[in-house]
Amino acid sequence: MNENHREITLIAEISGNHLGNLNRAKELIHAAKESGATHVKLQTYTPDTITLNVSTPEFRVSEGHELWSERTLWDLYQEAHTPWEWHEELFALARNIGIEIFSSPFDPTAVDLLEKLNVKLYKIASLETGDLQLIELVAKTGKPLIISTGASTLDEIDDVVETVGKTGNKHLTLLLCTSAYPTPTNGVHLGRLKLLQERYGLPIGLSDHTIGSEASIGAVALGATVIERHLTLKRSDGGADSAFSLEPEEFASLAQAIINMSAAMGNNEWLIDPIEDESRRFRRSLYVTQDVTQGELLTQSNIRSVRPANGIAPKYLNEVLGKRFNQDLSYGTALSWEHFS
Fold first, then answer.
1. Domain segments of the chain: what residues?
2. Which of 39, 67, 77, 264 gives the lowest tally of CB atoms within 10 Å of its CB?
């Protein structure tokens, strides 16, 4: 088996799929581990650290939105937030069962909490890419930083990369992301992965909000080293994010598909793989196709290109035609340079 494959970070995002129940949040962490995720992620905010308790139209999701039509931001975040008093217990559980846990902070107080919990890396959500003060604060921790780029212009991403770079933090990964929930397949734009990689020279990944798994698998084929997907125990249980979340069995299938795709990518060094040795043995070469005697001419009647590959390579056929055999040879002999002069 080819072992030259990239290690892929596969993040299970819990978000609001705990439905406000601590035990369900714990079940989700177990499900993430059992489904093959390498990391599990929370979101660290409260309604009043992310918005205001105002119900005017500007504080409401637009009418007709597929999931959250006309809901106030306050109510939506009140439903979806992970209570801060849960964090220590959830971090302890994840570490106890052997899965890396981290979070997306949405304000400096969230960073303070996560630092106390000795978080190992951070994620910045797409809609926070304009908050350069928050990004600078997180980058100054020196810990690896994953930043989604949904609903961001290239100029805004330039600002993000520059801000992180100025802190001396060299551990930044950019995720392609489309901030639409769920994201239609034709809205993913995987071709932009190459643009991100070439423009910034940084590791890339995908924060995937589609219904299926094709986009995530395709991203790995295009060089992604990080894949983020939302995880729920059961979509029919509802919740703010359930419609674009994977159930554990689906997540496990995605995890295996990513492993397989990563292995299939191999490397770009062009060598004959040992698993091809048997096929290589049965390439064509020149063979004696009838009994011949010393002095006979080599002609297309008595030598021919056939399988296997024990004789002279077929590309030399015209070079050897017209030479004379210097010994008697029998039908089925692999032709070598010592057989003629």
1. 9-46+81-265, 274-339
2. 264
Q: Which residues contact 197 (CB under 8 A, 6 or more apart)?
A: 204, 223
CA distance 187 to 53: 32
Q: 325 forms bridges with which residues in the sheet?
A: 340
Q: How far apart are CA 304 and CA 183, in angstroms?
A: 59
Low-confidence ranges of the chain (pLDDT < 70): 1-5
The C-alpha atoms of residue 42 and residue 52 are separated, in whole angstroms, by: 22
Closest to 119 in 3D by CA, of 128, 110, 131, 127: 110
Considering only CA atoms, give the Rg of the chain. 30
**Residue 2 confidence (pLDDT):** 41
Burial label for 133, CB within 10 Å (0-12, 13-18, 19+), is: exposed
Q: Residue 280 has which token pair? A: 């290589």
**In the prediction, which pLDDT does 268 show?**
84
Do the beta carbons of residue 313 and residue 339 sit within 8 Å?
Answer: no
> Hey, do 9-46+81-265 and 274-339 end up sharing a CATH topology, with the first three levels equal?
no
Which is nearest to 213 in space by CA: 251, 173, 241?
A: 251
DSSP class per residue in 35-100: TT-SEEEEEE--HHHH--S--SGGGBPPTT-TTTTT-BHHHHHHHH---HHHHHHHHHHHHHHT-E
pTM: 0.88
pLDDT of residue 1: 34
The topology (CATH level 3) of 274-339 is Type Iii Antifreeze Protein Isoform Hplc 12 (3.90.1210)
